[in-house]
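Example 3.2
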Amino acid sequence: MVQDVGDVTFEGVNTSIPSATYNSACPVDSLRPCSRLANYGSKMGIDATRKWSTEGFARPWPDEIVMDAKTRALVDSQMELLAKELGME
């Protein structure tokens, strides 16, 4: 169960490797009306799991970056200003 959508989004965007993660051209269901060609179209899957060396990823997995309190306060204040400017209070 997802506890924090922001955390899931962050992990999905920042830990995926495009060449290994996104599948764009593939066979699709015959009844799919929006494919460009019969039985062939596109789908997207995101795999943001930690990669293993046996999968060809020998680099160490980086530690999660954590903002210090000063940076978090600055970002939060800027987001509040932006939300007000866009009418999203």
